[in-house]
Design brief:
This protein is mostly helical and 133 residues long. Helix content is 68%, strand content 5%. It has a two-stranded antiparallel sheet. α1 runs antiparallel to α3. It is rod-shaped.
Length: 133
């Protein structure tokens, strides 16, 4: 494989690696959004199937009365509907996805920049060689 073809292939692989990083970061952003929705939005709970008047529950994080956190002790159905472990699991799964996304994005970006720099240096060397000859 000639040098130019190899360089173009290297840049193409670097772009693909960077695109994978962007995709993983987008997935991590979706996981963070899902976690935020679980923690910050109010919700409703059916006390029995087909309930016409479901119980209204405050958000997990911004509650003042404790409807989301005290649960069935006070005859409240809200605690079992949105559990803390679900939100924490979504948040925990986003950490390795984010780390991998950042790594792929950084590797792809640096590889592309290194290739561009190497090409610029080759062009400068050619220019210097033609001026000295």
């Amino acid at each position: 494989m000639r040098s130019r073809e190899y360089d173009l292939d290297f840049r193409d692989r670097a772009r693909r690696t960077r695109a994978w990083g962007i995709g993983l970061l987008a997935l991590a952003a979706l996981q963070w959004t899902w976690c935020a929705l679980l923690l910050l939005t109010p919700y409703e709970v059916d006390e029995k199937p087909g309930d016409r008047y479901p119980a209204e529950c405050e958000s997990r994080l911004l509650t003042e009365r404790g409807t989301a956190n005290e649960g069935l002790q006070r005859g409240d159905w809200c605690q079992d509907e949105r559990d803390w472990p679900e939100a924490i699991a979504v948040l925990g799964l986003s950490v390795p996805v984010s780390a991998a996304g950042v790594a792929f994005f950084a590797i792809g970006s640096v590889s592309s920049r290194m290739s561009a720099h190497a090409e610029a240096m080759r062009e400068l060397d050619k220019l210097t060689d033609t001026q000295n000859a």
